[in-house]
TrEMBL record:
PANTHER family: EXOPOLYPHOSPHATASE (PTHR30005), RETROGRADE REGULATION PROTEIN 2 (PTHR30005:SF0). One of its GO terms (molecular function) is pyrophosphatase activity. Residues 18-296 form the Ppx/GppA phosphatase N-terminal domain. It comes from Candidatus Actinomarina minuta. It comes from the Bacteria. This is Exopolyphosphatase.
Length: 298
């Protein structure tokens, strides 16, 4: 048995998983996330801002203390869309190495999708005919099987991007909503997934699952494998788009307050994906790229 940690440095949040691994099976000991907003204003400046770096380094410092206290033997650390797209990602990689002696590997959208697929499949037996969707801050990965081969389609669209470009205030206006949907339609063209099992992973979907279950306190184990209908998600979206950010925070105590700013954008993406691909329900999975990253090496 080996104790391993995985860190996912995403565009909106930085997440940690510590697991015991034996014979390709995981026993998850701890999972945490912090909203760090690496991609804040990235579209305007093409750089990760100083404030974003400060938030990110503070969280990494916290995670490494947790890793040390849990006697972890090996640590894997990856970066996704924000680090792929920023001009100063090399500087941040060097900072992470010099400050924390941590090797941060920036991966492609395709590898991000493959690792997510590995993670999800590890918690489902004989998963077939699936469409796994991971909505991040700057990118969205569609992972699906054809003739038992995994395919990945990485799209340059995410909750922070949508929030900054279109839905930058709550309640959202009809004009902003229409422009957001037009942009969505430009990004997602083609593809027939109507008969597939839609599985949503990572922060947007687990947050939606927690809100749907009306949790008082976020509980990922209760959220895992929850089925949510198109009608329920549409109802949730219609409620949130007319609320202010403080109202959203007050209405959903289990929602991380830092996610309240982007959750309406996330719901818009989810509802339009379901509508586009004519899928009437989704299942939420707590397993994702973190599990996949560990299982890639074990």
């Amino acid at each position: 048995m080996v104790r391993v940690a995985a860190i996912d440095c995403g565009s909106n949040s930085t997440r940690l998983l510590i697991s015991n691994v034996e014979n390709g099976r995981l026993e998850n000991l701890l999972k945490q996330h912090e909203v760090t907003k690496l991609s804040e204003n990235l579209i305007k400046t093409n750089e990760i801002a100083d404030n974003s770096k400060k938030r990110f380094y503070k969280v990494l410092r916290k995670y490494l203390k947790i890793i040390e206290n849990n006697n972890v033997e090996e640590v894997f650390c990856i970066g996704t869309a924000a680090l792929r797209n920023s001009k100063n990602s090399d500087e941040i990689i060097d900072d992470v190495k010099s400050k924390f002696n941590l090797d941060l590997k920036v991966i492609s959208g395709e590898e991000e999708g493959y690792l997510t697929g590995i993670g999800v499949q590890s918690s489902f037996e004989d998963l077939e005919n699936y469409l796994i969707v991971d909505i991040g801050g700057q990118s969205t990965e569609l992972i699906y099987d054809i003739d038992k081969r995994v395919n990945v389609d990485s799209k340059e669209i995410g909750v922070v991007m949508m929030n900054e470009n279109f839905l930058n205030q709550n309640p959202i206006s009809e004009f902003d909503e229409e422009n957001a949907i037009k942009f969505f339609d430009q990004i997602f063209s083609g593809g027939d997934f109507s008969s597939r099992n839609f599985i949503g992973v990572s922060g947007t979907f687990t947050s939606i699952g927690s809100m749907y279950l009306k949790q008082k306190k976020y509980n990922e184990d209760e959220i895992d494998r929850t089925n949510i209908s198109y009608e329920s998600i549409n109802h949730l979206y219609k409620n949130l788009k007319f609320q202010t950010i403080p109202q959203i925070i007050n209405s959903y105590p289990s929602l991380d307050p830092k996610r309240a700013v982007t959750i309406t954008s996330g719901l818009l993406l989810v509802i339009n994906l379901l509508k586009k691909y004519e899928i009437n329900q989704l299942k939420v999975s707590k397993s994702d790229i973190l599990e996949g990253l560990i299982l890639k090496y074990f």
